[in-house]
Write a structure and sequence with these properties.
The longest helix has 23 residues, at about 5-25. This protein folds into 2 domains: about 35-180, no CATH class; about 190-320, Cytochrome c-like domain (Cytochrome Bc1 Complex, Chain D, domain 2, Orthogonal Bundle), CATH 1.10.760.10. The protein has helices at about 5-25, 40-50, 100, 110-115, 120-125, 155-160, 165-170, 180-190, 205-210, 240, 245-255, 285-295, 310-320; strands at about 70-75, 80-90, 135-145, 150-155, 175-180. It contains 13 helices and 5 strands. The structure holds heme C.
């Protein structure tokens, strides 16, 4: 007998281990980080910041220490009018720097060169970037040329244009301020990914949910929020299909107000305790009136309260509408 099966078995295990080692070492590999960042990737990471999930700067996910996206109609320093308006990403004191400002070599060829050269991001990454800059930084996205091609790059507008966080926020005003980073965290925290994906696939999805992303769209995204299972529409381009803040307001308060048979849960609690006017929101009364409406005893549904500027729902809608 002499343990024939045993020998055969160990030869097979050894052989397959060896083969898989050879495949791993010798087959041509592709370093994901060498993908060149697209403009979408720069917009995503500058608006979301270092980490939109758990992070030491915001351990309880309250939306603190987050970058803030603003749209500027005029230069915050000189007052010169912009046409079209310019989007800027404000990192106040203590806000951790975005991933590729910390690691510019992950931006990819061309984008790294321009971001470090014209964009002057080197000055930022040299400092203590995990807790952010003491004075804060404002970024924009520049457009330059590399090897005869147009390339978008990260610009440190604090160095190139003298923009500082507080003056930039003041120049934008609340109307042009978007809490996209906090909103993306809400997508993670509220479990939206249990039903929604952020990844149209290369099938008939194209026609309904828009084009699938490019590889370079993911540079510097942390975490990538693909979603897990599709029980609901893909949201990657939802802001292009539906840009109505008013519709979002109704739909998040109670999806059945706009889609009668929707299985999406209510997210009314994201309004918090008080509405935009500072009045306490009476959820019990609202729901009682809604049930009367749903059972046909009332002609109109009760009105959805306006949200307070610092409510969680404001951040969530800011993010949803940024998905273009
Ligand atoms: C239980 C599954 C479920 C969860 C959880 C869920 N949704 Fe939905 N959502 C749906 C379904 C189903 C629809 C389509 C019907 C409708 O409009 O209500 C939808 C529609 C939407 C739409 C409109 C999409 C379009 O194509 O116009 C948006 C925006 C949206 N959801 C955002 C969210 C966000 C943000 C969260 C997390 C806070 C969330 N949803 C959580 C199921 C869900």
């Amino acid at each position: 007998m002499a343990f024939k099966e045993y020998r055969l078995g160990s030869a097979m295990v050894g052989g397959s281990l060896g083969l898989s080692m050879i495949i791993t070492i010798f087959l041509p590999s592709f370093d994901l980080r060498s993908a060149v960042s697209t403009k979408v990737a720069l917009e995503k990471q500058l608006s979301a910041g270092f980490d939109v999930g758990f992070g030491y700067a915001d351990p309880l996910l309250l939306g603190i220490n987050r970058p803030i996206t603003v749209v500027l109609e005029a230069d915050p320093k000189t007052g010169a009018k912009f046409d079209p308006p310019v989007t800027a990403y404000v990192y106040q004191s203590g806000v951790p720097m975005p991933p590729n400002v910390r690691h510019p070599n992950d931006l990819g060829k061309g984008v790294q060169d321009l971001s470090e050269g014209l964009g002057q991001i080197g000055g930022v990454s040299g400092s203590n970037h995990s807790v952010g800059q003491k004075e804060g930084v404002v970024f924009t996205i520049g457009l330059g040329e590399f090897d005869g091609e147009e390339v978008s790059y990260i610009e440190n507008a604090t160095a190139t244009r003298g923009w500082v966080p507080e003056a930039t926020l003041a120049a934008a005003g609340d109307k042009n301020t978007f809490k996209i980073s906090q909103g993306k965290t809400e997508f993670v925290v509220q479990g939206c990914w249990w039903c929604h994906t952020l990844l149209p696939e290369q099938t008939q999805d194209w026609q309904v949910f828009g084009a699938p992303p490019y590889l370079g769209d993911f540079n510097g995204e942390n975490p990538t929020a693909f979603g897990s299972d599709r029980k609901a529409p893909d949201l990657l381009h939802v802001g292009t299909r539906n840009s109505s803040r008013e519709w979002m307001l109704l739909h998040f308060f109670n999806p059945r107000l706009v889609q009668v048979n929707s299985i999406m849960p209510r997210f009314d609690y994201l309004w918090g305790e008080k509405d935009a006017q500072g009045n306490v929101i009476d959820y019990d009364k609202w729901r009682a009136e809604y049930l009367e409406y749903a059972s046909g005893k009332r002609v109109y549904p009760p009105e959805v309260p306006d949200y307070a500027p610092d409510s969680e729902i404001r951040a969530l809608i800011d993010w949803v509408l940024s998905l273009k």
